[in-house]
Design brief:
This protein is an alpha/beta fold. It is built from 15 helices and five strands. A five-stranded parallel beta sheet has the order 3-2-1-4-5. It holds the Pfam family DUF218.
Length: 342
């Protein structure tokens, strides 16, 4: 049974008109197709929504789950999907209203309330965050404290100055190098080459360290992990030192799959390599994923500069704050599209 079919069959008997089941499946399938790969927006207007004006692929996703929610109003998973798409589009007011709507239907909805605290923190609204946290603690004090610690750690990471100095680390070390989308012909783009140059330097400085390359989106028959491994081997790194993680499609997948591999290949220290614009997000979710697996590894960040200067790389904007919190919520276990996509 497909994930969509499971979602539809999981609804309580009589909760929605079964005549709508086919339409709901079409909407969910359309939403996830456009989420992952986009498509012809005008075709979606004409064939799926018939008259609604849409401006981009995430408009399609949001509209699909909004209509699904209207057809099955008891399905809070559809409302969570709407909110997730609004977050992607930086529509924080709309997302906040959607989470409040979920709480109106289910006052015990911990995930929705935790997102209200996250939204306040994204905005730097200390009073709003405190009030949202009080409400969260009223639902589950222990879990609320776990989220408070997550948010505090995220802020600490965002406040740190980026590191560009190659470390030499004692003990058992695993270098985790995060991938970047390949060109259509399957070749590494400059951003990935920059990350690989830094990975090579730190691998040479730590000759007993294992090197994990992570990235699974294929282009022209090869994945990021394949290309990264070959590049490092061509530069003199022994293939025996390299682990390839080639299943992930995005940062969350990178981190979760890498963390699962680190359960088997435990390390005193993880040296995390990625671009400076990506590091704060990657490190935040990596530390959280390791903590969830009771792995005590220290995470040492090593940035590949992708800003004009190191001072520029140290600056963090509102959009980056939003994405860091979005992915932290996802890695914590709050699925963006419940049952379909973490």
């Amino acid at each position: 049974m497909t994930a969509t079919a499971c979602l539809i069959s999981a609804a309580p008997a009589g909760a929605f008109d079964q005549a709508n089941a086919a339409r709901i499946k079409q909407l969910v399938d359309t939403g996830m197709q456009y989420y992952w790969s986009g498509g012809d927006v005008k075709k979606a207007e004409a064939e799926v929504f018939k008259g609604i004006t849409l401006h981009g692929k995430y408009d399609v996703v949001e509209e699909a789950f909004k209509e699904a929610s209207t057809l099955a109003p008891e399905r809070l998973d559809f409302q969570y999907a709407v909110a997730a798409t609004q977050i992607i589009q930086k529509k924080l007011d709309d997302a906040q209203a959607t989470f409040q709507s979920i709480l109106g239907k289910d006052p015990t909805a911990f995930d929705a309330q935790s997102w209200l605290e996250a939204i306040a923190r994204i905005r730097g609204d200390e009073t709003g965050a405190a009030l949202a946290h009080q409400a969260l603690a009223g639902l589950d004090r222990e879990r609320a404290e776990e989220y408070r610690k997550r948010f505090v750690r995220a802020e600490q990471i965002m406040a740190e100055k980026p590191n560009f100095d190659v470390p030499t680390v004692p003990g058992k070390v695993v270098i985790v190098a995060l991938g970047y989308a390949l060109a259509d012909d399957g070749k590494a783009q400059q951003t990935l080459l920059d990350r690989l140059e830094v990975t090579l330097k730190v691998a040479e400085a730590n000759p007993t360290a294992l090197v994990m390359v992570s990235g699974g989106v294929p282009k022209n028959g090869v994945t990021e992990g394949d290309v990264m491994s070959k590049w490092l081997v061509d530069k003199g790194i022994s293939r025996d030192r390299i682990m390839i993680e080639d299943k992930s499609k995005d940062t969350i997948g990178n981190v979760i799959n890498a963390a699962n591999l680190l359960v088997r290949h435990q390390a005193d220290t993880v040296i995390l390599v990625t671009s400076s614009s990506h590091m704060r997000r990657a490190r935040t979710v990596m530390e959280d994923a390791l903590k969830q697996r009771d792995l005590p590894s220290a995470v040492v960040p090593l940035n590949a500069l992708d800003a004009p200067t190191q001072d520029e790389a140290a600056k963090i904007g509102a959009d980056e704050r939003l994405v860091i919190y979005r992915d932290l919520m996802r890695v914590s276990g709050v699925w963006a599209y419940p049952g379909l996509q973490q």
